[in-house]
Specification:
Blueprint lengths: L2 H29 L8 H4 L20 E8 L30 H17 L6 E6 L3 H15 L3 E7 L11 E5 L6 E5 H8 L3 E6 L4 H21 L14 E5 L17 H7 L1 H12 L10 H4 L12 H20 L2 H8 L3 H18 L6 E3 L10 H14 L1 H4 L14 H15 L10 H7 L6 H12 L3 H10 L2 H6 L9 H14 L4 H6 L3 H9 L5 H14 L4 H9 L2 H8 L3 H4 L2 H14 L4 H9 L2 H6 L7 H14 L9 H14 L2 H4 L3 H17 L1 H35 L20 H11 L10 H11 L8 H9 L8 E2 L4 H15 L4 H25 L18 E5 L2 E4 L12 E2 L45 H6 L9 H34 L21 E4 L5 E5 L3 E6 L4 E7 L8 E7 L6 E6 L3 E6 L10 E7 L13 E6 L4 E6 L3 E6 L4 E7 L6 E7 L2 E6 L4 E5 L11 E3 L6 E7 L3 E6 L3 E6 L9 E4 L10 E2 L6 E2 L1
Parallel strand pairs: 1-2, 1-3, 3-6, 6-7, 9-12
Antiparallel strand pairs: 4-5, 7-8, 10-11, 13-14, 14-15, 15-16, 17-18, 18-19, 19-20, 21-22, 22-23, 23-24, 25-26, 26-27, 27-28, 29-30, 30-31, 31-32, 33-34
Helix pairs in contact: 1-41, 4-5, 7-8, 7-12, 10-12, 10-13, 10-16, 15-16, 15-17, 16-17, 17-20, 18-20, 20-23, 22-23, 23-27, 25-27, 27-30, 30-33, 31-33, 33-39, 34-38, 34-39, 37-38, 38-39
Keywords: Repeat, WD repeat
Family: Belongs to the WD repeat RAPTOR family.
InterPro entries: ARM-like, ARM-type_fold, HEAT, Raptor, Raptor_N, WD40/YVTN_repeat-like_dom_sf, WD40_repeat_dom_sf, WD40_rpt
């Protein structure tokens, strides 16, 4: 009896498990459905990153060039104010002064301290002043300052043989006979030393000197400000540029321990390793290794500058530890000033940290200015003690008689800290404190043993982001990695390329250092290395692109190493052709190499670089195409001193290749680069484009005249009951553009039988013609449309070059780009067009271009006069007998020097047409300014800010994204299941109940329900209103930004299984993709993409607008409408991939896609089926079926291979797509007065609405 419920529970549990498995299976399938417009270029603004990097590069490097050693010892005589213990510390510079005569001991000490300083700065000028007088000190300081000029001078003061400094700011020296102590004011010392300077005070109460120095410096600064107007050249000591190191504070005496040197502070500064080892032994007397004594310490083998020896290794570890302590304790700017600006100052401050540790153990506190925080308890000192202990423990074996059988064991200090750094990297994020081991990594780069590992870890650290690069540069990594570029080790090449790519992405100013040291050769070799991975070769191309970016020295150096040929060779490499990023940066590198560098450009011409770049214009990656357009744009942006036909041929060939891109490009990136590239062509041939634009403006005005005269003709015809036929010069139905405007006016007025009352007099028309050009720079959407519709095939012949049609075509492309639906593209192109239009207006005003007189006869002129339309454009005055001949416009198209000719003899009257060489120059400068530029290259650089080598990090990000998508899809699917259950219970008799009733601000043209919420999108002519249909409130209005004379004609949601994007088509042939159209989470709608999908719109009495359908599985958009073609646009590549000829005489009214079949309903009632797998337009798989007799309003694929079609007459038919040539599977006749305008099919229910 108890088994029944258990079985039922198990059954229910089993059914629940099956449901969960089914849901997960569906979600997994949906996760594999591709998503459109998720690339980086769609998700962020195309602009360069604003990096706030730390100021790691010093404004100026200083060098201590002079050192003054002032020793006031008075050997054998103790100062009166100091009572010394017995015994007490006596050694000065490790020399016992009592072992020799006073004078000889003094000289020995002076020579010894000089040698100690020379270890740190061997090239400085050293001057000793032993037991000096005031005059001696003055003479010494002034001479050193005079010779040092703006460099740093060091003054070392040892006052062990004189009284302590006074509270009045005085130190003591001697008189000439050494019978008295003479005070020397710090104020005077400041005047003699000037700045920049460094002062070292080794005496009791030395802190008094530091405080007095600051007080005197402040007083001096105040006096200088007061007296600067009267004595502007007065000497001033800037305390900011003065550094002071004092042995103790203002109230402390120096240690007198006989085991220590008397000048303990000086020994710490000049012989740090020796005093550190001795102090370590004093502190650890009971815990030293057996056999280790002070005498043994003196015999440590090796040299300080040889890291392979025990003594050199200790010095190396000491440098790494003190740098690490300083970098972790000091502010960044102070660290740069003290440890990176001057080698001697850096050494002294490293040793000052040791002096603080040692002297604090004897109750002395060293003082510095600028002050340094206390570091004597830093944990890194424990690492130093350990390294010393390990080294000393090996001394007995190393120095024994049998030392030949013992090998010195190097310290594991660097290996251990590299491991610690690696551990930090495994958890490293920007919010954590910086790794304290970073300065140690810098030191490890000097070691061949650990170099490979250190570079790898450094690269991983730099990969964390720009903040990590800034930290590494601030610690001083730059000179080390710069020097490593001289290495020939191939195993280092990938690591160094990676590191330099990271550095240049953050700070491109390093390019000059690379060129100066020949570093560009390293990256050229890396780019050619077949053993390098594609990602590292991409970084090498990026580094080269940064080296030549705006750097003439870099361009020249790289060109000498054949960078153009090397980059072009990469385009033949199979690895490169399968790596979009590498193709992109090779193209950018080429574009930057020949930017404003004509020699590189001609090297590219010789190597057919432009033809190689043409191939990249068809690349499936939008960034690669944009890079190729950029490179081709800079390729034509060079002008030799004297133009050549070959240069013109190359430039025009590039222009002819770039112009057609506008019709097949959906990428905003590429079209922006196209506008920038064409602007460079306009700059090269400004006179040609000005002349072409002038003719377009003339034709625009002629069309206005035709419209005006036509309207008056109709009015007069209606009044007189007669029709006047206007005489044409040929049989064309359109206006004859070959006739001069004045002749046309004359003929038109004669045909109107003297009706000239409605037209202006000749003087009035002249004024209007001149003033009309003031409006030429008005680039409204309506005016751009009028200019675009002008056909240059009917313009007067342009003589002087065979390239005129190319430039005219480029001009039309610029006009189309100026009317581009994306604001970024249109803004760039409008700048170019406006610049040309402004020059057209200047041409008209300067040359006083007028139409001929009202009667059609020319006004009286002197022989030789001609109508000048500007530079490169001149039309000879024609006689009455020649008035019907079209004026020929000569245009200068060959590149020319910017220096124009000053003299000209005038046109040759024996010729009927002026050639380019006959055209006079004018005072109007038509050189196009650099108005437009993009940030595509800077934006491309931001890719190197992101982690590039952390595969685990990328996998974690992908997993987080996948989990987020999974959760989102699960919610949608559960909601869908609830809806399906509700659909099964749906009362079909209540379908007529009204759920929503509201008035839209304008007449709706399209409706669309949001797939995930209760929003209803209602489109009118210019915008989309978002309604919440449950509550009847309008949420927002989305302006589609289409021109006022156009209307929205279609809407679709794409990526419905994720965050949907809205596809909006308008009848001007434009498509716009909107993100967040319903203001989700209060975020404003964003335009993701926009382009001119159809440019060959055919005017008709009834328009279908733009008709679209979406293929989510392939991310394709099929677009038709008032065109003879149906176009397939790939949103992944963002370009037109295929074009189907409809074969119909009417427009396409509806589109639907299923599997591989595309169904198109047409205005003549036919349905045309296309197999999209076939790339041929005239394929036998393209079939037409006369499904209806009238305008088709719907075509929808149903399940089981059925197709539903409906016409405006009300006949709804369902077809078996396998037997379309026969009768329909089913027919539904809708009886309704006036027919039907739209039919909707529910995607999940068997419901049809009309």
């Amino acid at each position: 009896m108890t088994m029944g419920p258990k079985d039922n529970g198990s059954k229910e549990q089993f059914e629940d498990d099956e449901e969960v498995l089914e849901i997960n299976s569906v979600i997994d399938k949906m996760l594999h459905v591709p998503i459109a417009y998720q690339e980086k270029r769609h998700l962020e603004k195309i602009s360069g990153a604003k990096i706030v990097a730390e100021s790691w590069r010093l404004k100026e490097r200083m060098k201590t060039v002079s050192v003054a050693l002032v020793l006031c010892l008075n050997v054998g005589v103790d100062p009166p104010d100091v009572v010394k213990t017995s015994p007490c510390a006596r050694r000065e510079c490790w020399i016992d002064p009592l072992m020799n005569s006073p004078q000889k001991a003094l000289e020995s000490i002076g020579n010894s301290i000089q040698k100690q300083y020379e270890r740190w700065q061997p090239r400085a000028r050293y001057k000793q002043s032993l037991d000096p007088t005031v005059e001696d000190v003055k003479r010494l300081c002034t001479s050193l300052r005079r010779n040092a000029k703006e460099e740093r001078v060091l003054l070392h003061y040892n006052g062990h043989g004189v009284p302590r400094p006074t509270a009045n700011g005085e130190i003591w020296v001697f008189n000439k006979n050494y019978t008295q102590y003479i005070p020397l004011s710090i104020y005077d010392l400041q005047s003699w030393m000037g700045s920049p300077s460094i002062f070292v005070y080794d005496c009791s109460c030395a802190g008094l000197i530091v405080s007095s120095f600051q007080s005197f410096a402040e007083q001096r600064e105040q006096d200088f400000q007061i007296n600067s107007l009267h004595s502007p050249s007065s000497n001033s000591c800037d305390a900011k540029n003065c550094i002071q190191l004092a042995a103790c504070s203002a109230s402390q005496l120096l240690p007198m321990n006989p085991e220590l040197p008397a000048d303990l502070f000086t020994t710490c500064l000049t012989t740090p390793i020796k005093i550190a080892l001795q102090w370590f032994c004093h502190q650890r007397q009971g815990s030293l290794a057996p056999g280790v004594t002070l005498d043994l310490i003196e015999k440590i083998p090796g040299r300080l500058n040889d890291r392979r020896t025990p003594l050199g290794e200790l010095n190396w570890i000491f440098t790494a530890i003190t740098d690490t302590i300083a970098w972790n304790i000091l502010p960044r700017d102070l660290f740069q000033k003290l440890f990176r600006q001057d080698l001697l100052v850096a050494s002294l401050f490293r040793n000052f940290l040791l002096a603080e540790r040692i002297m604090r153990s004897y109750r002395c506190t060293p003082v510095s200015s600028p002050p340094v925080p206390a570091t004597f308890r830093h944990p890194m000192w424990a690492a130093w003690d350990h390294a010393v202990d390990v080294c000393l423990s090996q001394l007995p074996q190393l120095l024994s008689d049998d030392s030949s059988n013992y090998a010195f064991q190097n310290s594991q200090f660097f290996a251990q800290h590299l491991t610690a750094f690696e551990v930090w990297l495994s958890f490293g994020i920007e919010q954590r404190d910086p790794p304290e081991q970073l300065p140690i990594v810098l030191q490890v780069l000097l070691s061949q043993v650990h170099r490979l590992r250190a570079l790898d870890l450094l690269g991983r650290f730099l990969d964390l982001g720009p903040w990590a690069v800034s930290l590494a540069l601030s610690v001083g990594i730059f000179p080390y990695v710069l020097k490593l570029l001289q290495s020939q080790a191939k195993e280092l090449r990938p690591l160094l390329v990676f590191i330099w790519a990271k550095i240049l992405a953050v700070d491109s100013t390093c390019q000059s250092d690379l060129v100066k040291d020949g570093g560009h050769q390293y990256f050229l070799r890396a780019l050619q290395d077949p053993q390098m991975s594609a990602s590292r070769r991409t970084m090498a191309a990026f580094v080269l692109a940064e080296i030549v970016n705006g750097n003439s020295a870099g361009q020249e150096a790289c060109l000498q190493r054949n960078v153009v040929s090397i980059c072009l060779d990469q385009l033949d490499d199979e690895i490169v052709m399968t790596t979009p990023k590498l193709k992109q940066w090779v193209s950018i590198c080429l574009g930057r190499v020949w930017t404003n560098y004509d020699e590189a450009r001609w090297r590219g011409v010789r190597d057919q670089a432009h033809e190689r770049l043409y191939e990249l214009l068809d690349d499936p990656q939008a960034e690669v195409r944009a890079a190729a357009v950029y490179a081709l744009g800079t390729f034509v942006d060079n002008q030799p001193e004297a133009g050549s036909d070959h240069a013109a041929h190359v430039n025009q060939a590039v222009g002819a290749t770039l112009a057609p891109l506008q019709r097949r490009e959906a990428s905003v990136l590429v079209r922006c680069e196209l506008a920038s590239a064409l602007q460079r062509l306009v700059s090269c041939y400004d006179s040609s484009f000005a002349a072409i634009a002038f003719r377009f403006v003339e034709e625009e005005k002629n069309l206005d005249v035709i419209q005006e005269v036509g309207s008056k003709t109709k009015a007069r015809t209606a009044g007189n009951g007669s029709v006047h036929q206007v005489t044409r010069s040929n049989s064309r139905s359109s206006f004859d553009h070959a006739n001069p405007p004045a002749n046309y006016l004359s003929m038109m007025k004669q045909s109107l039988a003297g009706d000239v009352s409605g037209l202006s007099s000749s003087s009035d028309s002249t004024t209007q013609a001149a003033s009309g050009y003031d409006q030429d720079t008005n680039l409204s959407a309506e005016r751009l449309n009028r200019l675009r519709k002008i056909s240059f095939s009917g313009l007067p012949s342009i003589v002087g070059s065979s390239y005129s049609s190319v430039n005219a075509n480029i001009w039309k492309v610029l006009l189309s780009l100026a009317a581009d639906p994306h604001p970024n593209v249109s803004a760039l192109a409008k700048c170019v067009v406006a610049g040309v239009m402004e020059r057209v207006a200047l041409m008209a005003k300067e040359q006083n271009c007028r139409y001929l007189s009202e009667s059609g006869s020319p006004r009286p002129r002197r022989r030789g006069d001609s109508e000048n339309y500007g530079d490169g454009l001149s039309v000879e005055s024609s006689s009455p007998s020649q008035s019907n001949n079209s004026p020929l416009i000569p245009i200068q198209l060959t590149p020319y020097s910017r220096t124009r000719k000053s003299f000209w003899k005038g046109p040759d009257r024996s010729k009927e047409v002026f050639r380019a060489s006959d055209v006079p120059s004018t005072s109007i400068a038509l050189v196009q300014d650099r108005l437009v530029s993009t940030q595509f290259c800077s934006w491309s650089t931001t890719a190197f800010f992101e982690p590039l080598c952390k595969e685990t990090c990328n996998e974690e990000k992908e997993e987080l994204i996948r989990q987020k998508r999974h959760s989102h899809l699960e919610k949608l699917l559960l909601n869908r299941i609830e809806i399906d259950v509700a659909h099964q219970k749906l009362d079909m008799s209540r379908l007529g109940d009204q759920q929503f009733f509201n008035k839209n601000p304008q007449q709706p043209v399209s409706l669309l329900f949001h797939p995930h919420n209760n929003n209803l999108l209602v489109a009118d002519r210019t915008g989309i209103n978002v309604w919440e249909w449950e509550c009847g409130q309008r949420k927002q209005c989305l302006r589609n930004n289409n021109p006022t004379n156009s209307s929205i004609s279609s809407m679709h949601f794409i990526n419905e299984h994720q965050d949907p994007l809205l596809l909006v088509g308008s009848d001007d042939g434009c498509v716009r993709i909107w993100k967040n159209p319903c203001r989700k989470e209060n975020q404003n709608p964003e335009l993701v993409a926009a382009w001119q999908a159809i440019s060959d719109i055919i005017p008709s009495s009834r328009s279908s607008g733009l008709v679209t359908t979406w293929d989510q599985s392939n991310l394709h958009i099929y677009i038709g409408g008032d065109s003879r073609h149906i176009q397939l646009w790939d949103t992944t590549t963002e370009r037109k991939e295929q074009e189907f000829l409809t074969g119909a005489d009417s427009c396409v009214t509806t589109l639907d896609f299923s599997g591989n079949l595309l169904a198109a309903g047409c205005g003549d009632g036919s349905v045309r089926m296309f197999d999209t797998r076939d790339r041929y337009v005239d394929s036998p798989r393209h079939k037409a079926h006369p499904a209806h007799n009238q305008w088709i309003v719907n075509t929808t694929f149903l399940e089981k291979e059925l197709l539903l079609t409906a016409s405006e007459l009300g006949d709804v038919k369902m077809w078996d797509i396998r037997k379309m040539s026969g009768d329909p599977y089913r027919t539904i006749k809708v009886v309704r007065t006036g027919g039907i305008r739209h039919v909707g099919v529910h995607p999940n229910l068997h419901i049809i609405a009309w």
